[in-house]
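User: I'm curious what two different proteins look like when written out as structure tokens. Can you demonstrate?

Assistant: Sure. I'll show them one after the other, since each token string lines up with its own sequence. Here's the first protein:
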Amino acid sequence: MDSSTPTDPETACDTHREIDRDPQRESGHTPAPVARGRGRGRPVTVSREVRREQILSAAERLFSETGYADTSMADIARVCETSKRTLYELFPTKEDLFRSLVGNMETFAGLPHEIDAAASTHDALEAALDAIAHYVLDVRHVTLARLVIAESHRFPELRQRYYEQGVEHCKRWLEARIAALVACRRLAPVNENRLAGMLFGAVIGTPLIAAIADRRLPEMAEVAAHAREAVASFVATPR
């Protein structure tokens, strides 16, 4: 998972639920189609990459439904309707498969543009928090977070990687947006790291913990309302 390059503060102002539902379908993530039984005629050839994605999709669903320990490689092969030989050629062990699944999680890309000069400071921060919320509170991201936490005793390095390249990466990006607003003199001088942590915790951290624990995703309208309240409470603009 690659990290996005934070916005340059000096140039940024120059340019303008439930989790028990199917996590693949509701997140917007489009899994590779799982192979179905073949009819008569010439066998269908499936590329190695497509087969790999099919296996990862099946593993994610089974790990989420029955847990890592209670899912066997034979179970995954059966759902994919592939041979165990093919499965083991791509993933020699179940541990390798789990690591690949977590490593396959999409990286937060931020917003596709610089801070809009026409937007208010509060609107710019609310937009940043909205982008982070749609990534961190996505059903697939929460599902993988629950798996990583549940299996952290087996894969302690994956829990650290999830935090650094998921949550912490989002916080660093938010900190860069705040620094850009300060550099543009649209935000009063502030400790960017502290403010980013406060905003992230108030708007995203609490619903993320609840989603992981209770298997319920928050309504995005409710998250947006919390973002408005948090920005209004924590952020002072220059007079």
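Here's a second, unrelated protein for contrast:
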Amino acid sequence: QIHCPAGDSRHKESLKNKFNIDLDSSSKTVNLIGQNMQPEDSAVYYCARERLEQRF
């Protein structure tokens, strides 16, 4: 799991050398970039957006 609150990314320790995250706030896009990948890293990777809802 990689969590990106308010433009800051926090990686699970085992993923630190596998992925880099590029956050572009102007275009509201996130790029997940794999690096040092091995055949055993082959998978379908998903990106999800957390929905924050405030009720008063």
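A detail about the second structure: The CA atoms of residues 19 and 34 lie 5 Å apart.
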